[in-house]
Amino acid sequence: MKINKLYKSIFPIALLIILSSCNDYLTISPDNSLTKEEFWKTESDATSSIVGVYATLRTNLETFIYWGEVRGDLLKSNAGKGAGVDKEAFDVFIVNPSNTMTKYTNMYSVINGANQVLKFVPTIVELDKSFTQTECNQILGEAYFLRAYTYFWLARTFKEVPLTLVPSENDVQDYNLRKSSQQVLFEQIYNDVKLAEKFLPKTYPSITQVKGRATKYAAFALEADVDLWMGKYQEAISACDTVVYSKQYSLLTSSALGNLYYPGNTVESIWEFQYLNSLNQKHSMRSWFNSSSYFSATLTDDLFETKDTRRLLAVSNSFNVVKYNVTTDDAHWILYRLADIVLMKAEALAHLDANNNATNIAAAVVEINKLRTRANIELLSGLSNINAVDEAVLDERGRELCYEGKRWFDLLRIASRNNYANKTMLTSRVLSSFDGVEQQVINLRIYNPESWYLPLNSDAINNNTLLVQNPYYK
Question: Residue 155: CB partners within 8 Å, gap ≥ 6?
Fold first, then answer.
């Protein structure tokens, strides 16, 4: 399609279409005259608008690490190494509403961009006859996907945030919005994902697009993730199977696993952020994880078994994270990959029947062992109940997906089930990464599950008269 040719020329340089304004509490209102009179007229406008949404999402990479990884048990923020007090506070659970890392402005910029696309791109079909309805639907699918993915991060991080499905267009709009419950957010996310599945293509003309843009299979990967949080276990299994049986993806061999991140775009990857030094598309992960050592790995020797081939691919003997390559600034950040799908399916299988169904548990173990086989470690056997599978899944996800922005949410998802019935699965693992007296201090800070969610930033509270602070931080 014509749109793919245009997209291919724009995507590598990550064209930013960031339309800003003055006093919106989300700081995302575009100039009204530009939106309606100078833009949203051509196929090129449609394409550049969705590219802008991807590009804005990519600016949240550091946020993904702090929100999704540092609060877990596998990555420690090294005090005094330059990250700054606000960021270091995440590691010791003393985050307060004034902490700059609790700002969600960039996330809402993604959402606003998606909302703009959903409202204005359909009007281009009538204005530009070369822009077909099929091409329009594809872009709408990407917008639904990106909005769902971004709200998924917000719902897991803050539990309750404002839900807006319309774009900010001018300064006279009312930007005072109440929070929506996590359940309402999840339902909207799920609805958006189902629309994305309907409209997104299975593939694109180039490997950069196939891995860098949302495909139908990326949408099913996201659905499986959302299903696990919503307790839709059969739906999660079906979504995982759609990805697996597409035969578009396969597990890399243990010796090739490092290729996931550099040079990237492997057969195991489903969706990833694209970077390329030659186009000056870089990130700071080499500095964060290696040069400046803002972070160090914890529990490495306890997590990885002796023969596990993933150990030195992820962490150096000096406990620096090397997963993203120590020699480059354009390793890729993986958002979903097949190994993740395998472990999601294992978790869903175990929970499909609350009565510790032996057949389902055995099937879950088969899935986990697929990754243990690749890692050259002893296969699991003898698991007899759901809790044992949850523990095994957490261990395997830790070994397989460490430092990929997933650890905290894995702990939170499993610990929060059935009104936080598995609370100790989170607290015990987090505490294990601390020593002595520090364990007692941290235990007091994480004992209340409400502390597991971040506070709404004080700027958001001050600028939105309807926002109410999350309970733990009042």
Answer: 161, 182, 185, 186, 189
